[in-house]
């Protein structure tokens, strides 16, 4: 008999979603165990009848990894009823989900996978994997903009972590973040008096979109060690 695993971890290993997302599904009463609503403290194995949105989940899925060049206009929320949702642009019938979401008005690199543990390794604050963005704003940058952004500014009732910011053109800068607050760069720029008019994510950890030769709205199957080499 196999050892029982905490439900959120089981769902992550099964490729349904990350542990954090699994907890949300449980909170939203979208998960059942043996025909009853699931609890966070449930421990399960393959002998249990585990369902997400009515679909039975059983055993570990084959793990897959894709780089995706997201264009502006695609929403990273996987909503079947939204014509702009990323769910209509997934590269495989295997359920995959994005690591490090981009908002609808942003573009650039997404990683799509069903590897919940690897997702946790990339996005959990304890691991601090860097993400690099190229950002264009609505007016020329003043002399202290990069220093102010790099030191941290108030966003969502907290001060952002120190980061690397470099001016690369009159109205454009690059920023390397090791955290992922909701619409963080847009809110940071707004605090400093600027409006973001283009936000492009070029790199996540060791994976750089510039070296992939990947056109917008296209996918490329990759190895997870291309993403995180260390």
TrEMBL record:
Pfam families: PseudoU_synth_2, S4. Keywords: Isomerase, RNA-binding. Residues 5-62 form the RNA-binding S4 domain. Its EC number is 5.4.99.-. It is an enzyme of class 5 (isomerase). It comes from the Bacteria. It catalyses: uridine(35) in tRNA(Tyr) = pseudouridine(35) in tRNA(Tyr); uridine(2604) in 23S rRNA = pseudouridine(2604) in 23S rRNA. PANTHER family: PSEUDOURIDINE SYNTHASE FAMILY PROTEIN-RELATED, RNA-BINDING S4 DOMAIN-CONTAINING PROTEIN. NCBIfam families: pseudouridine synthase (TIGR00093). Belongs to the pseudouridine synthase RsuA family. This is Pseudouridine synthase.
């Amino acid at each position: 008999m196999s050892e029982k695993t905490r439900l959120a971890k089981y769902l992550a290993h099964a490729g349904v979603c990350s542990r954090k997302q699994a907890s949300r599904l449980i909170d939203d009463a979208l998960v059942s165990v043996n025909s009853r609503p699931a609890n966070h403290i449930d421990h399960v194995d393959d002998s249990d009848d585990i369902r997400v949105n009515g679909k039975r989940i059983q055993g570990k899925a084959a793990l897959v990894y894709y780089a995706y060049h997201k264009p502006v206009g695609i929403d990273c929320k996987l909503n079947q009823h939204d014509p702009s949702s990323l769910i209509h642009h997934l590269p495989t019938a295997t359920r995959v989900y994005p690591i490090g979401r981009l908002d609808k008005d942003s573009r650039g690199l997404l990683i799509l996978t069903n590897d919940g543990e690897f997702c946790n390794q990339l996005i959990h604050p304890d691991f601090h994997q860097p993400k690099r963005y190229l950002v264009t704003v609505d007016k020329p940058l003043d002399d202290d903009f990069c220093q102010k952004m790099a030191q941290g500014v108030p966003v969502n009732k907290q001060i952002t972590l120190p980061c690397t910011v470099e001016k690369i053109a009159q109205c454009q800068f690059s920023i390397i973040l090791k955290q992922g607050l909701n619409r963080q760069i847009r809110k940071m720029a707004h605090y400093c008096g600027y409006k973001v008019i283009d936000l492009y994510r070029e790199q996540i950890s060791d994976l750089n979109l510039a070296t992939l030769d990947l056109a917008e709205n296209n996918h490329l199957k990759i190895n997870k060690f291309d993403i995180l080499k260390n």
